[in-house]
Amino acid sequence: MIKKIVPIAALLAPLALSGCKTTPVKVDSSATTMTEESKDAVDRAVARVKPSLVRIQVIEPDYDEGRESKSISFGSGTIITDDGFIMTNHHVAGKAVQIICTLGNREEMNAKLIATDPATDIAIIKLMPGTPMKFPFVEFGDSDAVKVGDTVMAMGSPAALSQSVTLGIIANTAMIQPLSWGSSYKFELDGENVGELVRWIGHDAQIFPGNSGGPLINMDGKIIGVNEVGIGLGGAIPGNLAKKVAFQLIENQAVKRAYAGITIQRLMKRSQDREGAIIASVLKESPAEKAGVKPGDHLLQVNDQKIEGRFNEDLPGINGIIADLPPGQESTWVLQRGTQALTVKVTPIQREPTLIPTLEMRQWGMTARNLTLWTKIGMARQTKDGVLVTSTRAGGPLAQAKPEIKPDDVIVKVNDTPIKSVQDLEALTKKLTEGKEGFVPALVTFERESEQFVTVVQVGIDKLQSPGKEVRKAWLPIETQVLTPEIASELGLENQKGVRVTRLYGNKPADFPLKVGDVITKVDGEPVDASKPVDAEVFPTLIRQMRVGNDVEFEVLRGKDKQTFKAKLEASPQASRELKRYRDLDFEFIAREASFKDRQKPTLAGVDFSVVADSVTQGGWADLGGMLVGDAILEIDGAPIKTIDDVEAAMKKAREEKHSSVIFFIRRDTQNLFLEMEPNW
What we know:
The model is unreliable at 1-32 and 180-184 (pLDDT under 50). Helix content is 15%, strand content 36%. It has 681 residues and is an alpha+beta fold. Strands 23, 24, 25, 26, 27, 28 and 29 form a seven-stranded antiparallel sheet that branches. A six-stranded antiparallel beta barrel has the order 1-2-3-6-5-4.
């Protein structure tokens, strides 16, 4: 994901808004010096924009391996209305489940996603202050008036740092992505080819990852572009296009575009024509096909707009003319077919998004989405009915089915119920599994390319099993290491086998005879045959074979002195795998009762704790909140945690009351920490 950010520059200074008109700026060709007059103009322009520039922190989902994971990223944006609407890139905030903005005065404020348009990479978010307020905002300039050589500035938050600005000039007013019909290169976002509609403004004001969504401004302090890409030159979405899309998103929460079902290509180089563009393809059952349009036709005019398509740079504008037609209204197209001039009436329909948002379906161990017109065409299907599997979890219900259901398969029926959409499958899943524990078998019909299969899927979530109690084995409250030949030689104990005591646990009896550094060579007369690292279990195995409570004789080398001691064997403490656990599916962590070894950690000495984090899933809310495996959980939302049941009760309360954040007070090594987790309920 591209996150382009503006570099830090010394020009950004907190200046008062002067309100004066700017004067033409004369910048030295080396771009390292400028006149006082130029610097004043830059200062005024920056001062106009700075209060409206925001840093955007986004939590967004990713769908892979059958689950939803979340990640944190940063970008930039600009307030464009006094009620707090912010314009940024789709690839910055278009999938956000949580947004925090840092304003020009360093205040942090929550925001929400209003609408997004991946086809032009523009998104609108809105600040959500606690009480209504007015915000400083930036006006748009006329990007069509921009000329090569004009001085511009790129503003944003590089690498999630504070606001910054860089200075440069316009290098190209019609920059396009590399276009070759033999090339697979596309700048795609959620299936949309951004280059079909966008012709970037190229500039040399330096930008870096994190500046995506930040404004490109002129010397009047007005937006003439939205920084998006960096390919040596910076590339900004033209301000006029961005403005049109942004205000449609604000007013309608969507951009309505027409779909005619054609692909446009520039005229061939050997063509003598100077007007028109080639219609390269016409999709079946599309409005253009129904109107009689054919591949190879030259499109000369749409309504009263002449079409000029001699160069690749012309194509985004032509695509825009067709996209801007009112859906459902008849339009007049003038075509050239060979030597024949034709006029046809095309009634475009509203264009569907290329991709529908993906969802995680835990009971199926998959991520999935509905089909669109475009996936229907791409998969050569007759209908959009069904659920498209986008990824599956290893070992999950779909992966374990025989035959297995795989990504790109389409689920069309469960038992006797046809499945037309994800919503149908969610409703049926609830009906199948509600009030039931474990798995429920379901006969699933799915399609793979031109074949239709059936399989049995065990639908549900595996129950977290209560650990069984193991028989207590004999144990000594010590840890040991194998006495390797190298260690034995350095200790002056050549050819000696055995184990060396490395630790005594704190609960040992007062008269316990062994010490750290003792080398145990025999147990009840039996040699400890350990001399290699792989022999680490030799000594513990000898002990486990004896009875709890027995007095056992140990032959020990303390230094080079041979001594004999007796010690009573204890029952081994419970292993971690035996202890009670709690799994939270929303926050994606598992907590368990603290074990004997947890309590023996030197960094936790004297800490009163009963529960530790046993597992934290990457990309879950607990992971994003900073929880680590081994954290001792002391409180949740102020409630003391004394048992694993306390964790379950606290999380249930947070879920029922939909707390905006859940605060964990934990102990990690020698530090106490507060972790704030902000779920998207």
